[in-house]
Amino acid sequence: MSFCVAFTSQSPLLEMTVRLRILPAVRCLFDKTVHVKVEGLSPHKPLILRSEVVDDRGIIFKATAQYRADERGCVDVSRAASLGGSYTGVEPMGLFWSMLPETPHHKLLKKTVLTPMQVEISAMDGGNGGEVLASEINYREFMVEGMKRIPLKEGRLRGVLFVPPGPGPFPAIVDLYTLGGRLTEPRASLLASKGFVVMALAYHSYEDLPKNPEYFDLEYYEEAIKYLLSLPEVSRTNCVKISSFQNNIFCGLNLLLGYCVSGIN
Fold first, then answer.
1. What residue stretches are annotated with the Acyl-CoA thioester hydrolase/bile acid-CoA amino acid N-acetyltransferase domain (predicted)?
2. What's the pLDDT at 252?
C-alpha cells in the first residue's frame, strides 16, 4: 500500500525550506552595496531580519527590521519597506548602516585589514517567538586579491603602504585619516582597491614616533610626498593627492605643500 501526502502553501513544513541570500555575493569589498532576499516563507508572513557584527574589541553591533512577506512568500529588502525596528522604509543597506553597539558610546573598530568584517544576517519568525529560520554571513573584505600591504619604515616615515594589483604605474594618495596618532588602515586599503597607491601615514603616538609633538611638522608630509613620487609603482604624470578626514587639515596641507613639492594636487 502506498501513501501520497500533499502540502499546501500554508504547511509549516514548507517553512523548513526558507532560504536567505545575500546578493550579489556573500563576499564583497567593505564599501560595496549588497541586499538581503528571503524566500520560502508563507505568503504575508511577518518576518524579522537581524544583523550582527563583533568588532576587533569584542563589541557587538546589531540592527533589526520588521517585514512582511509578499504573496509569493518573499522578502527582498531592495524593494520591500521595513515596517519598524532600527529603520523604516525601503533601505537596501539598512541592516548595515543602522547597527548600534550593545555597549553605548562605541564606534565600530577594525584594526586589521587582512581579515574581512563578518556580518551575520538572520531571518527570524516575526510571529513565533523569534525562531531563527535562516542565516548567512556577509564577508566584507578590505583588500582585493593581489594587493600588497607593506609596513612603512623609511627614514622617519611610519605607516603602511598599499599597492594595487597590476603593472601600474598608479596615481598616489597620502591618507591622513586622523591626526590622533592611531594608524587607520581600512579607508587606505579601500582607496587602493580603486587603483591608487595609498600611504596610510601615522603622525604621532605610533611605533617610535613622538607621543606629543611640540609643533606641526610640515616637512614630515613633504618627505612622504617625495617618497611616494620616488616609487616605481607611482605615476609621474599624475598628481599625488592628500586625503584627510578633517577638512581643515586637508585644505591646509594641500595649499602649503603645493608650494613645497612639485607634482602635488
1. 31-154
2. 52
- Nearest 5 degrees, angle CA 26-CA 28-CA 97? 90
Lowest mean pLDDT among 60-74, 110-124, 221-235: 221-235
The pLDDT value recorded for residue 28 is: 97
Domain end: 141, 169, 203, which one?
141
Local confidence band at 213 (pLDDT 50, 70, 90 cut-offs): low
pLDDT tens by residue, 154-205: 988 889 999 999 988 999 988 876 555 567 899 999 999 999 999 988 875 5
**Rounded distance between C-alpha atoms, residue 165 and residue 169, angstroms:** 10
Estimate the crossing angle of helix 247-260 against helix 218-230, to 10 degrees.
Answer: 70
- CATH assignment at residue 25: 2.60.40.2240
Residues 110 and 31 in one domain: yes
Distance between first and last Cα of the chain: 83
For the chain, the 3-state helix, strand and coil shares in percent, each to the nearest 5, are 15, 35, 50
> Rounded to 5 degrees, what are φ and ψ at 122?
-125, 140
- Residue 7 in any domain: the answer is no
Q: Supply the range of the domain harboring residue 21.
A: 12-141
Q: What grid cell was written down for 184?
A: 587607520
Cα of 163 vs its chain's centroid, Å? 19
d(CA 194, CA 164): 8
